[in-house]
Specification:
Shape: globular
Distance between the termini: 23 Å
Order of helices and strands: HEEEEHEHEHEEEEHHEHEHEEHH
Strand content: 25-35%
Structural class: alpha/beta
Number of helices: 10
Oligomer: single chain
Length: 271
């Protein structure tokens, strides 16, 4: 579920510490199965606030960025963040131009066929955003019929809308955007009636845009879960990262990072 208006928000977003991108794949030392990678390159959409985006100093910052930095610190490795074309994310991972995708990535059956995932660490749902005071009677997914609807290209919302029988055909228009900067601008200017967007991203956008938009308690499609993605055969790196992330959850560090960005601990507890 992506992405998700940063250019407009950068004028008002507070600055958080970040670090630049890199291009080298992770390496391990010799044949020691317990050796930690010396560097991890993480791919992300750098316009996906608050998960990963560029601040006013052109530094990559965000919620997932902070989680990844803490995980790398515990692994004793360097970490670099590389902006990628989100529509080519699987190719970037498979080619080893990046080692991990950690950027509010929904776990789906299609993606699991091509990528290896961590355990889910956060729930995510797609909801409807409208211009403030203009809910247009939208109380359920079916009420989007006859409306001009937008979402981000390559997002979970687009995939669902494309596959849901008759849903897209019921819209008066369906528009996709390269990023949510443009999508929210079109919503504000009345070029679309409703925007289907990851709830986390949309609510963060609202917090930076004053009273311009309303979030409707209308879920579009099933509720999904965020996971960290690795190359299909890279079980060693996956297990190392999962191990330190579990420690972060257990000692409360991951929850504190969530509270800093969302005002609440949204991290899933392991069952």
């Amino acid at each position: 579920m992506r992405k998700f208006f940063v250019a407009a928000m950068l004028l008002v977003t507070m600055v958080f510490a970040g670090c630049g991108g890199g291009e080298q794949p992770a390496k391990t030392d010799g044949g020691d199965s317990k050796a930690e990678p010396t560097k991890i390159t993480i791919g992300l959409d750098d316009e996906y606030a608050p998960m990963g985006f560029k601040n006013e100093q052109n530094e990559i910052v965000g919620f997932d960025v902070d989680l990844a930095k803490e995980a790398a610190k515990r692994l004793g490795t360097e970490v670099e963040f590389k902006a990628i074309d989100w529509n080519s994310k699987e190719a970037e991972l498979k080619s080893a131009r990046i080692d991990i995708i950690w950027n509010g990535l929904d776990i789906t059956p299609e993606r699991k066929a091509n990528m290896l995932f961590s355990d889910p660490y956060m729930d995510n749902r797609q909801i409807v955003f409208v211009k403030a005071g203009n809910d247009q009677g939208i109380m359920a997914e079916a009420d989007l019929a006859g409306k001009a609807v937008g979402t981000q290209a390559g997002s979970t919302a687009e995939t669902y809308i494309d596959k849901a029988e008759g849903l897209k055909d019921s819209f008066s228009e369906f528009k996709t955007y390269g990023d949510y900067v443009s999508a929210f601008m079109d919503l504000e200017n009345g070029r679309i009636d409703a925007l289907v967007c990851d709830e986390i991203v949309g609510r963060y956008a609202m917090s930076k845009q004053g009273d311009k938009f309303d979030a409707l308690n209308v879920t579009v499609g099933p509720v999904s879960e965020f996971g960290i993605a690795f190359r299909k055969d890279d079980t060693e790196l996956r297990n190392k990262v999962q191990g330190v992330f579990d420690e972060m959850v257990k000692d409360g560090t991951a929850g504190k990072i969530s509270e800093q960005w969302f005002g609440a601990n949204l991290i899933k507890e392991k069952k």
